[in-house]
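seq as requested:
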Amino acid sequence: MSIYYGIDVGGTAVKIGRFNGETLLERFEFPTDVSDGGRRILSNIAAALRKPGDAAGAGLGVPGPVLPDGTVNRCVNLGWGVCNPARDLAMLTGLPVRACNDADAAALGEQWLGAGRGFADILLVTLGTGVGSGCVTGGKLLFGGHGAAGELGHLCMNPDETRLCSCGNRGCLEQYVGAPGITVLAKESGMGEITAREIFARAERGDKTALFVVDRVCNVLGRGIASACAVLDPEAVVLGGGVSGAGELLRAGVEKYFQKYAFHACRDTKILLAELGGDAGIYGCARLAME
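struct tokens:
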């Protein structure tokens, strides 16, 4: 039996899955200790693993850009600067460890056993507080030269934007289709203080203002995805994250605008909803460890 661990490190919780091939044997999680610059995160993971000696390896997903050699160029949410958590966790556990960005891990998970199963080339876009994305090409993660391949959330959609994005630039896709950006648009449209979830719920009920807001969100997101597909040319785009809970209303709207803006050779690209939910990362990390 070949056991692999998938470890998804978030700013709030560390999720761990123990796999035998495609079978998830057990899943557990614990709070992420970000005190003291996140110095105890890896030792806490090592202590939490179930019998690491019987495992063949582990994959580690972290919220920051990761190079193929496991070097991380800052994880602000964890308090980490430039470091190599894959190497450090390997030393703590005695296991071979590979690391990747958390959105990349989710992309690999969806491509392996989720909505992207059967496709060798997919782009995952996760819509939550921010916009994360990951690209799988030829069945392998695309890291890029700086560990930032597929950062769709920071495509510049509006160079005249006056507000700053969290990255320090202006007009990023994330500012319009992340949950905070959707609520800003709703407020500007006269809906007052309202959550992204409620905006989509009202749109489902036929509220004209909510439908207007959702249409604008789908327009921007469809345009951004079309731009990305002109470069990456995936077979399928998978929409995940909390905002994707809006379901078919979001998917169909994005597909409509994707078809409007896409390069003609890319128009057969499937627009799909993610299937693995919050566990996509642990699946992808385990799959990375198996390579």
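The first helix runs from residue 41 to 48.
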